[in-house]
Specification:
This protein is mainly alpha-helical. The chain has one domain (about 1-60). It contains five helices and no strands. The longest helix is centred in the first third of the chain and has 15 residues, at about 10-25. The protein is globular and about 35 Å long.
Amino acid sequence: MAARRGITRNTASGYVKSIYRKLNISSRVQAVLHAARMGLVECPTICGIATTSYSSHTARRFIPEAT
């Protein structure tokens, strides 16, 4: 993906880290769940598993509340 954008892999990695930091998340799974919660993507299988397999307390760890 970085090559298609004309940037280095390290630059892309830095951008991803910056986005994660701003969203207060630390993984791709958390990013997908956050995007789903915001209505940016639909992921019934993944999000269905996440919401039924984990307690609500655990789910809140993965999807930080907007501040």
